[in-house]
Design goal:
483 residues, alpha/beta, ten-stranded mixed sheet, two-stranded antiparallel sheet, 9 helices, binds 2-acetamido-2-deoxy-beta-D-glucopyranose, signal, Xylosidase/arabinosidase
Length: 483
C-alpha cells in the first residue's frame, strides 16, 4: 500500500511539469533580427554570415599567466581546481546585456523580450537583482519606474566588473565556481559569438582573481539547432583552447587530469539533435580521437529519465549507449518536483538508482540542486509568480541534505547563480516589496512569509558546500539563522 501511494505520487510528480524549459537561450533566434517577440523564429538571420569564424588561425594574443588565487580575508576556502569531487558548481548564464554595454550585439538581452524597448510590458525576469551593488557605469536605465520616480536599472554580463562582483560574492560566501553556459544557437553569427566569448573572458579573469573555478558548458537547446551543431562544437572548442587558451587557466576545472566540459541537451525530446552516430563520434573525438590538447572529461547534460529512456528522454535504444559513454552524467532536474515530499519521492525512485548505476559503471553522477522556480514574466503571465515556492530555503536544503548523505554523489550542480528569468537565481536579489520597482510583477525573497536577507541563497549555497566538504555536520535542518 505504501509502495503503491509512493509510486502514484512519483508518477504525478514527473507528469505535471513535463513542459518545462531547461534553461535554453529562448530569445536566441532574435539575436540578429530586429524583430518583435515572435517574428522570425525560424527564418535565417539577415546579417552577413560569410565570415568564416572557424578559420583555424592562431592569434598572437598573450598567454594568460597562471594566476594564483587570492582569497579575501575571512574567506579561507579555495576550491581545488584539479577535481570535481566535493564541489557544488553553479550554472552561470551570463546572458544579460544592454545597448551600449560594449558587446557587439548592442541591444537588451534577457531582461526584456524586446531588443530596444525596456518597458514593463516586455519584462522577462521575475526577480529584481540588488542593483545598488554594481558600479553605476555597469548599469543602464530602463523605462520601468522606481518608487522614488527614478528609473529601474539593469546590469550587463559583458561588463568585467559585474562578473567580478559575482565571483567576489562566491569567494565571500564560500561558493566554488561556475559552469559558464555557451549556447550554441546562432553561434555561427560573429557578433553573437564574440559577445558570448567576452563573457567567458570575464568569467576566466574573475575566477583567476578570486580563486574560484570555472568550466565551459555547451548548450544544444534552441529552435534553430540541428545536427550540424555537432561539427560546430568541435570547431568552437578548438578555438577556445587554441586562441582563448581557457584550459591553460590555473582555475579551469580538471578531473582525472583532463579539463572538464559539459554538453547540455543530449537526448532530450525537445532538443533537435537526433543523429546518434554523429553524436557518438563527437564523444569519441573528445575522449580519444582529437589531438591530445582537446581531450576533456566529458559530462552529458541529459534528461531526468535518461536511465529508463522515457518521459523527457528520447526512447530509441541507441541513446542508452550514448548516455553511458560520457565520463559524467548530469540530469536536469529543475521542475522535476514541486514540494519537498515530491523531491523525496523522486530522489528515492530515480536519483538514488541513477547514482547507483553510475557508481557501478565508473561514471561521475552530478544531480541538480535548485531553490524554487518562477517564470511568470518569461511566460507572458501564463504562470503564477512563485510557481514552485522556495519555502524560505527548505526546498533547497532538503536536496542538499539528501545529496550530501548519498555516498554515490560527490558533485552537485546548483541551478543557477544568475537565472532570474526562471527564478532559480541564488545571487543577491530584492528581499521585499520596498526594494522593487513600482511597476511589474516580481518574486521577492519574503514570498513565503519569512523575512530573509538579500544574500540568503548565497549563504545557503556556501553552507551546503561546507556540508559536502565535511566542514560542518550533516544536517537536514538549515544550519544558519535567517538574518
Ligand atoms: C530596430 O528597431 C528599433 C526600434 O523599433 C529602431 O529604432 C531601429 O532603427 C531598428 N534597427 C534596425 C537595424 O532596423
Ligand atoms: C586536489 O585534488 C587532487 C586530485 O584529486 C589531489 O591530488 C590534490 O592533493 C588536491 N589538492 C589539495 C590541496 O587538496
Ligand atoms: C529540426 O530540424 C529540422 C531540420 O534539420 C527542421 O526541419 C525541423 O523543423 C526542426 N524541428 C524543430 C522542432 O525545431
Ligand atoms: C542546420 O543549422 C545550420 C546552422 O544554423 C544551418 O546553416 C543549416 O541550414 C541547418 N540545416 C538544416 C537542414 O536546417
Amino acid at each position: 500500500m505504501k509502495a503503491c501511494s509512493t509510486m502514484l505520487l512519483f508518477l504525478a510528480t514527473i507528469v505535471w511539469f513535463s513542459g518545462l524549459s531547461h534553461g535554453n537561450d529562448r530569445t536566441g533566434p532574435q539575436d540578429y533580427t530586429n524583430s518583435s517577440k515572435t517574428a522570425n523564429l525560424f527564418s535565417s538571420p539577415t546579417i552577413d554570415t560569410t565570415t568564416n569564424l572557424f578559420q583555424r588561425k592562431k592569434t598572437n594574443k598573450p598567454v594568460a599567466s597562471p594566476t594564483s588565487p587570492s582569497p579575501a580575508p575571512g574567506s579561507d576556502y579555495v576550491p581545488n581546481a584539479s577535481t570535481l569531487s566535493k564541489l557544488i558548481i553553479c550554472g552561470y548564464q551570463g546572458w544579460f546585456a544592454f545597448p551600449g554595454d560594449g558587446a557587439p550585439i548592442n541591444k537588451w538581452k534577457h531582461w526584456f523580450s524586446s531588443d530596444y524597448d525596456p518597458s514593463v510590458s516586455n519584462l522577462e525576469v521575475d526577480m529584481y537583482p540588488s542593483m545598488d551593488e554594481y558600479d553605476a557605469a555597469d548599469l543602464l536605465e530602463s523605462n520601468i519606474l522606481m518608487k522614488d520616480g527614478s528609473k529601474a536599472k539593469f546590469f550587463s554580463s559583458a561588463r568585467p566588473n559585474v562578473v567580478k562582483k559575482h565571483f567576489q560574492w562566491m569567494r565571500d560566501y564560500g561558493i566554488s565556481g561556475v559552469f559558464q553556459m555557451r549556447f550554441m544557437e546562432n553561434m555561427d553569427l560573429p557578433k553573437n559569438r564574440e559577445w558570448k566569448t567576452m563573457v567567458l573572458r570575464n568569467v576566466k579573469a574573475a575566477a583567476e582573481s578570486t580563486g574560484r573555478v570555472f568550466a565551459v558548458s555547451y548548450n544544444l537547446a534552441g529552435n534553430s539547432i540541428n545536427d550540424s551543431v555537432l561539427d560546430a562544437i568541435k570547431l568552437d572548442w578548438m578555438d577556445l583552447v587554441d586562441n582563448e587558451r581557457i584550459t591553460e587557466s590555473s582555475r579551469y576545472i580538471r578531473h582525472t587530469g583532463l579539463p572538464v566540459l559539459r554538453i547540455f541537451g543530449v537526448g532530450f525530446k525537445t532538443v533537435n539533435v537526433t543523429d546518434t552516430k554523429k553524436l557518438a563520434e563527437l564523444i569519441k573525438w573528445f575522449k580519444t580521437d582529437a589531438e591530445p590538447q582537446y581531450h576533456v572529461f566529458l559530462i552529458g547534460g541529459v534528461p531526468r529519465r535518461w536511465r529508463d529512456l522515457t518521459d523527457d528522454s528520447r526512447e530509441e535504444k541507441d541513446w542508452k549507449d550514448i548516455y553511458q559513454s560520457f565520463h559524467g552524467i548530469h540530469p536536469w532536474h529543475v521542475g522535476s518536483w514541486g514540494t519537498t515530499t515530491g523531491f523525496q519521492s523522486f530522489y528515492n525512485n530515480v536519483i538514488v538508482n541513477d547514482a547507483k548505476l553510475c557508481a557501478k559503471q565508473g561514471i561521475l553522477y552530478m544531480p541538480t540542486m535548485w531553490p524554487g522556480f518562477s517564470w511568470h514574466n518569461l511566460n507572458e503571465g501564463n504562470a503564477q509568480v512563485n510557481q514552485i515556492p522556495r519555502l524560505g530555503g527548505n526546498f533547497m536544503w532538503a536536496q542538499a541534505y539528501s545529496y550530501v548523505q548519498n555516498k554515490n554523489i560527490n558533485t552537485v550542480w546548483m541551478a543557477q547563480f544568475d537565472e532570474v528569468d526562471e527564478g532559480t537565481a541564488i545571487f543577491k536579489v530584492a528581499k521585499n516589496k520596498q526594494e522593487l520597482p513600482a511597476e511589474g510583477n516580481w518574486l521577492t525573497l519574503d514570498a513565503d512569509g519569512v523575512a530573509l536577507p538579500n544574500d540568503w541563497y548565497l549563504k545557503l549555497c556556501g553552507e551546503a558546500q561546507k556540508m559536502l566538504l565535511g566542514k560542518i555536520a550533516l544536517t537536514n535542518k538549515i544550519p544558519i539563522k535567517n538574518k
